[in-house]
Amino acid sequence: MKVTVCELPDNWTQDDTIWNDMIALLAKEKSDLLVLPEMPFYAWITRSAHVDHRQWQKTVIAHETWCSRLDELPVSMVAASRPVIRNDRRLNQGVIWTRQDGIMACHEKYYLPDEPGYFEASWYHRGSGDFRSARVNGVNIGFMICTDLWFTDRAREYKEQDVDILICPRATPASKDDIWVPGGRAAAIVAGAFCLSSNFNGPNVTGEDFGGAGWIIEPERGAVKALTDRRHWLLTLDIDIARAKAAKKTYPRYVQG
User: Fold this and answer.
1) 257 pLDDT band (50/70/90 cuts)?
2) Which residue has the higher pLDDT, 208 or 55?
3) Which domains does the chain have, with CATH numbers?
């Protein structure tokens, strides 16, 4: 199975330039699954503690519009998160699109930061707390959206559900002391699953750059097999799902909690 991760500038949807480049690269690589960043189709809106409900509605509409174009991408699956409104609650929802079935809602982000640049607990509500896997095109997939990644007991839950791939859409800042790749490695090891993540890169209006570094991490020892940068902003790797199934039978996965 070929999987693709990426890093994208915050304003990448202002025109179709990057979209068209993505189409060409995906066609060349013949990828099966593309992972996009967290709420990828609108400029990051949780920078300010001031919640603008009209702005939330705009980003919902933008995601609906771009999601309707996913069939332009030459892949059979796309994973990302999107803003939604459900029963008067604003949520960050993990979704998988397939060519056969369209959008499938899989998870709602549960662990929400609330600090400058990332006032997420102010802007939207916690999800249901369900970390349930989804069976998509013969693959067991689990979501850990950005901050969800730090709660490794959830990765252990996914191990018990025999998850093959953890999807981790992110919108995380640049830092001289990288913590995110080690977090992805830990989640992969605990779950015994491939961990795939995409992120934004470059500046946002707070003056703090996004950190890029989309990754593909293997399940046995959490080795980083692919890591994006500004030059290599989209990377594809052929992974063997059987490795995730085998990893769950080895240390530390077999140890009973």
Assistant:
1) confident
2) 55
3) 2-247 (3.60.110.10)
The structure's pTM equals 0.97
Per DSSP, the residues of the chain read: -EEEEEEEETTGGGSSHHHHHHHHHHHHHT-SEEE--SSTTS---TTSSS--HHHHHHHHHHHHHHHTTGGGSSSSEEEEEEEEEETTEEEEEEEEEETTTEEEEEEE------BTTB-HHHHS---------EEETTEEEEE--GGGGG-HHHHHHHHHTT-SEEEEE---B--SS--HHHHHHHHHHHHTSEEEEEEEEE--TTSPPEE---EEE-TTT--EEEE--SSS-EEEEE--HHHHHHHTTSTTTTS--
